Amino acid sequence: MGPLLTTKLHPPRRRRGLVARARLDARLDRAGEVAVTLVSAPAGFGKTTILTEWLAAGAPEGRSAAWLSLDARDNDPALFWSYLVAALQTAVPDLGATTLAVLQSPQTSTEAAVATLVNELADLPRELVLVLDDYHVVDSPQVHEGMVRLVEHLPVQVHLVIAGRADPPLPLARLRARGELLELRAAELRFTAAEVAAYLTGAMGLTLTADDVAALDSRTEGWIAAVQLAALSMQGREDPSAFVAEFAGDDRYIVDFLVEEVLARQPERVRTFLLQTSILARLSGPLCDAVTGGDGGKDTLEAAERANLFLVPLDDRRRWYRYHHLFADVLQAHLRDEQPDAVAELHRRAADWHARHGDRAEAIGHALAGGDAARAAELVELALPALQQGRQEATMRRWLQALPDEVIAERPVLSVGYAAALMVSGETAGVEARLRDAERWLIDDGSRPRPAGRMVVVDEAAFRRLPSGIALYRAGQALLSGDVPATVTHARRALELAGADDHVARGGPAGLLGLAYWRTGDLDTGARWYAECAASLEQAGHLSDVTGCALALADMRLEQGRLAEAMSTYENALRLVTPPGGPVLRGAADMHVGIAGVLLEHNELDAARRRLAVSAQLGEHAGLPQNPHRERVARARLAEADGDLDGALALLAEAERRYAADYFPEVRPIGAVRARLHARAGRWPDALAWGRQRGLSADDDPDYLHEFEHLVLARALVARYAADGDQPSMAGALRLLARLRRAAEDGGRTGSLLDVLVVLALAAAVCGDQPAALAALRHALELAEPRGHVRSFLDEGRLLRRHLAAVANGRAHGYAGRLLAASSPGATPVAARPVPAWPVEPLSARELEVLRLLGTDLDGPGIARRLFVSVNTVRTHTKNLYAKLGVNNRRTAVRRGQELDLLTRGGDEPTLAADSR
Amino acid sequence: MTENRHLGLSDAGRYEIRLAGRLDDRWATWFDGMTLTTADGTTVLSGPLADQAALHGVLARIRDLGLPLVAVTRLDADPHVPPR
Q1: Complex ipTM, two decimals?
Q2: What residues in A contact B21, CB-CB < 8 Å?
Q3: What total of structural domains would you count in chain B?
Q4: A577 lies in a domain?
Q5: CA distance A209 to A309
Q6: pLDDT tens track for A232-285
Q7: Residues of A in contact with B63 (CB under 8 A)
């Protein structure tokens, strides 16, 4: 994302010669009592001015205020919300950091960003007013949708003021009914007769008769822009009454008439300047010089501002200005009428200037407005990488749509960029045609005629990556349509075509291959490709994306029953995103949640709880978009282990609300996790209702993607038989379990097999077939013991525990006995595996000292004196040890230190040596 | 409703847009190619527009100039409305 324009984040500078409007200020003061204030009126009714004046006068009292001037570019949701957060940060610097992180993460949604923003706003200690000016320029449904969400969940201490020329598509009627809407509209904003008089004779110092003032009031109907233009037209006239008479008797469009009067009174040089620069959204001296081909632009602008020529200064240093929108429109109409042939050239110059000064977006806008499609296309091609990185797909598509198809077709980089933009927004229909357009230029093996015309390439590096990129997008398309063989073919081709050390280009296809094999249930191959994807991304330095791979990889390892590998996958990725002394990167929270999941299965509930707490402390910005729901599913499992069924169900409901889809196959849908909970708790009718709703049946063909769901269905059928002895249910369950068992064995999915065996043992047990139950259970225990599975058994309840006891009778010190011991209160961990070294990165000796002193009453300077170092050094150590412990304040650092037994360790105390010096 | 009613959202059409106030001829270029006629203190913009989006574009320009809108009429014979 390019740099944000700071001029948008402040109200314009106050203008001279204004009329005090106490009645409106008093109305606006009520803005602090309602959720939304709407200032809705046509151009030239002084909307911006009253808001600027109201804020400048110190209102709203005791509140922070933020301002955002919108323009057409803000129809890109990514840009709109970034600007909105930047505006908020001018008032509250720390606000919105998490929201920005969510905005910049891949596969995120506006919904997630707005939800995060609402949470951050809810924590504000003070009242805050946010003004959104020129809201009528917004026509993006996605932006409106986000604003509706924001308004509907707006915390009480936040007040929105929305100014524009049209009523926004927000739930205004509902707000009105609740008394949460304050409206200022044209009838109220217009100058009253008294204000017209005060402005003309007071502020502007004109000598007018009462009749003149009345005539002007009647002709302008209090339209402020018209009154101001009229005043300008009359300045310095010998006989203003004659002008008033002419004006009052004319029926022309009032602004047109007046601007003509004003222009006629300017020197030719100034008049030409105003017309030629009217095409600019923002004006600076150098830019004006470039467009007009003259010099002295800065002086002309300053003089025009002094002469009140509707020029609005945008900053304190008077570098940037804009024309009042109404004035600019009328000037442009004059320009097009008088110099129609000059317009394109003026836009071309503006485009060149902006391109030279790094504002590509503005340059592209002018190139398009000037009809120079080739230039625009060239600029768009150069802008693509930044747009893709900034997730500004909406902007990308708007520009590409503005370019003629034939211009895009001769530019392969743009064609593929278009395909990428379409894919990201889920529109797969036009993708293949764009890829073919690009390919025509790439394949030159004589198999097809060379296309007519010429190929244009600006970004050579991007051009070289096209063959691999095209194959990658084809693989992505194939995966979306569920065509695994085609996914594999195209992804392998993409890998062949990618440079050996182009790690970014290799990561994508490797990941798609991993996904493709995962979907088929070939987890070994899937995991191998994912490991390669992770390695490429790590080499490319995309560390947060490595954590995304780790999630996939660990999910597969868990199904395989390879808990230790899942654990080390999470731990390795966590190390990458929590570099010692560096900031915690996104994905760290997900790794803690993943680790908690493995710990849970080992029945190390307290350790799991701590990991979940660490994840929560890291905050939402340290998590991938899927972490909110993954974290709640993990907490639900913890609640289940604690015997808190209602708590677990509530957490699963929350997980569903926070659900964010990704490309992963949904092998454990939240609904199925809930149904398993129901089945285990004897609520089999609920579980079976879920199965019917999902269209599952005991006679379905086994299929890896539904393996977990089918197993839950079998569990529910067993529960039903146990309750009412329904024979067909048990028969169905046994048929299904036999098929699931075979499929899990064939696919080498030991984790799945273990779960199947446990349910099989239960089924046999409720049928009274003790030998079969014990056989299945023994088999499950053999698989479980070396891997440390515990909860898979304990969560199944009393019946299974009785059978564990039967197994344990034979082998007093066997695994079954240890499981039973673990299921009693006050139990110790079962698994023989060592408790993982934690924190991941050990604290240095110096950091340990600082941590121990943080546990005393000493303050920062006190600790520094004790250690004979500077306060800054203490700060650095503190920061580093916080990062390693995964905490963000002193209190939690000390608590964590106590939990880890770091505070009391004596022995090699370098502190003492320093002290006794 | 089972009948496949034609909504005309993507159809080109001729429109007449009536505004309060007299607009000078020069504004014809501003309203891409529409014809301007003035009478009795009102202005009528008329001409072909590509589709509904183009119509709303013109209406937005009218709004941005603060011109009071009086009426919008579609001139082509509308199959659903009997001709006046």
Answers
A1: 0.79
A2: 251-254
A3: 1
A4: yes
A5: 25
A6: 889 888 888 999 998 988 888 888 888 888 888 889 999 999 999 999 999 999
A7: 42-43, 136, 165-166
Evaluate whether residue A364 is within a structural domain: no
- Contact between A42 and A57 under an 8 Å Cβ cutoff? The reply is no
Closest Cα of chain B to A251: distance in Å? 6
- Residue position matching structure tokens 């307290």: A606
The CATH number given to whatever domain includes residue A63 is 3.40.50.300
Q: What is the CA radius of gyration of chain A?
A: 35
- Do both A182 and A205 map to the same domain? no
Total domain count, chain A = 5
User: Is there a single domain that holds both residue A136 and residue A15?
Assistant: yes
Residue A325 maps to a domain: no
Tokens found for residue A856: 């005393």
Contact A222, A192 (CB under 8 A): yes
Burial B29-47 (b: 16+ CB within 10 A, else e): bbbeebebebeeebbbbbb
User: What residue of B is the nearest CA neighbor of A166?
Assistant: B63
φ, ψ of residue A287 to 5 degrees: the values are: -65, -45
Q: Which residues of chain A have pLDDT under 50?
A: 1, 812, 829, 831-839, 905-917
> Measuring CA to CA, how many Å separate A361 from each of A380, A396, A543?
8, 10, 30
Could you tell me the two tokens for A525? 């191959």
Min Cα distance A217 → chain B (Å) is: 17
- Report yes or no: A612 and A631 within 8 Å, Cβ to Cβ: yes
Return all residues near A358 (Cβ < 8 A) that are at least 6 apart: A2
Interface test with A, best of B17, B18, B26 (most A CBs within 10 A): B26
Count of residues for chain A?
917
**In sequence order, which residues have a C-beta less than 8 Å from that of residue A613 and are 6 or more positions away?**
none
Q: Left if phi > 0, otherwise alpha if psi is -120 to 50, otherwise beta: which for A310? A: left
Q: Which domain holds residue A94?
A: 6-189
Distance of CA A346 to the CA centre of its chain: 38
